[in-house]
Amino acid sequence: MEKALAVANEIIILAKAAGDPPTQMKLQKLMFYAHGWHLALADAPLIDQQFEAWKYGPIVPSVYHTFKHHRMLPITILGTEVQVIGEGSIQLTPPQLIDVTSYAAALLRRTWEVFGRYSGGQLSAMTHADGTPWANARREYGDRDGAPMSNESIKQYFKRQMSQDDK
Length: 167
Known about the structure:
Number of strands: 5
Distance between the termini: 31 Å
Radius of gyration: 16 Å
Shape: globular
Number of helices: 7
Strand order of the largest sheet: 2-1-5
Strand content: 5-15%
């Protein structure tokens, strides 16, 4: 399982390399798709935090707060976290994937290849479709930001998507 900010940073790296740095909305939705496919294919969470159903789609709150100062502008810098490097010394370090040759890293690259061409708004609309984990959480908990989206509901949704793709 990867740190949410490490996954976000990897998506930013991929997007910048393609000349298309993501907005906050696009970043969050790409994270959601990567996490969902990882749950369905590897039967394990990709990230170490829970998604929540916010007005514009699935959100990892800690990642949102890291990048909220970008507002709707493209994100061109990596998120950082405080790291203690000695007695009383700290530095800001961008978290990275545990293993950039891992299945998770390959899945992030594939997620970018498939979904990177969509805008944040398009990805948001896709996550709002009837029967999505976002739509189900909003229906169950009401239209309030912060409704939890369980990994089980996300996994089952993406498994259904796989079985439909096989037909």
